[in-house]
């Protein structure tokens, strides 16, 4: 089946306190978003890439592509008010009989193995979401009380989350709910079982300046 990846890059990354959108910040010499796109081409050279950007960032992105001589083929799509709407817009470019992944632009350190495993599992079982175990102790907050919980019962979810496109397109016909924190949760709301696969611990989401420093070290 043909493979598509929707890379969600619609935000501005205000938590980094930087005037530059975080997906455009340079990581070891080139914008984070370029690193992310290249990972999927390395995994699947024929993959069709859809980059979802806020409309007002399109020209800046095109200028960056010229500056960095970035010629990897990709389709630009305008972002929506929420991540849910941005993914929904991206799905307009995806046919029904295919496998589609959705990935955060700010996760440039996803491994090739994670990408391949996610797409292959989705083709076989309908969907796949990478996850890693927790190392830190966690506590549940309930008003002014808190209690220790068993961390072995919890996982950290990553992207790309991959799906048979017919299923995901159907899921995104639902009205938005606050519980839709990722694409798997949208599919789950239809009663579908979510299949978890092993992610890679380096696949961090660059959200803060500290994350960028870590990513620079890991990307060498």
What does this structure look like?
There is one protein chain. With 220 residues, this protein is of the alpha/beta class. It has a single domain (2-131, 157-218), classed as Spore Coat Polysaccharide Biosynthesis Protein SpsA, Chain A. The protein has seven helices and twelve strands. Helix 1 (32-43) packs across helix 4. The model has no long low-confidence stretch (mean pLDDT 95).
Supply the key terms:
single chain; 220 residues; alpha/beta; Spore Coat Polysaccharide Biosynthesis Protein SpsA, Chain A; eight-stranded mixed β-sheet; two-stranded antiparallel sheet; 7 helices; 12 strands; 25% strand; globular
Task: Describe the secondary structure blueprint for this structure.
Elements: E1 2-9, E2 26-27, E3 30-31, H1 32-43, E4 48-53, H2 58-67, E5 75-78, H3 83-91, E6 98-104, H4 112-125, E7 127-133, E8 139-142, E9 145-148, E10 155-157, E11 161-164, H5 165-171, H6 183-188, E12 196-198, H7 209-218
Parallel strand pairs: 1-4, 1-6, 4-5, 7-12
Antiparallel strand pairs: 2-3, 6-11, 7-10, 7-11, 8-9
Beta-strand fraction estimate: 15-25%
* Whole-number total of structural domains: 1
* Major sheet: 8 strands, mixed
> Structural class, from helix and strand content?
alpha/beta
| Unreliable runs | none
Assembly level: single chain
Could you estimate the helical fraction of the residues in percent? Answer: 25-40%
How many strand units? 12
């Amino acid at each position: 089946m043909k493979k598509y990846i929707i890379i969600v890059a619609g935000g501005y990354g205000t938590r980094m306190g930087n005037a530059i959108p975080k997906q455009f910040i340079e990581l070891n010499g080139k914008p984070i978003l370029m690193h992310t796109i290249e990972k999927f081409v390395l995994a699947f050279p024929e993959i069709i890439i859809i980059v979802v950007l806020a409309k007002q960032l399109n020209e800046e992105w095109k200028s960056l592509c010229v500056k960095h001589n970035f010629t990897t083929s990709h389709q630009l799509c305008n972002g929506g008010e929420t991540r849910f709407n941005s993914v929904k817009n991206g799905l307009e470019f995806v046919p029904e009989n295919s496998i589609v992944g959705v990935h955060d632009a700010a996760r440039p350190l996803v491994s090739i193995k994670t990408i391949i495993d996610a797409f292959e599992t989705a083709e076989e079982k309908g969907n796949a979401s990478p996850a890693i175990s927790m190392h830190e102790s966690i506590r549940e907050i309930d008003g002014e009380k808190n209690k220790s919980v068993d961390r072995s019962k919890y996982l950290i979810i990553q992207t790309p989350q991959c799906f048979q496109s017919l299923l995901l397109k159907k899921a995104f016909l639902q009205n938005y709910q606050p519980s839709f924190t990722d694409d798997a949760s949208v599919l789950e709301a239809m009663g579908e079982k979510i299949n978890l696969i092993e992610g890679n611990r380096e696949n961090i989401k660059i959200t803060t300046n500290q994350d960028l420093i870590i990513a620079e070290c890991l990307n060498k």
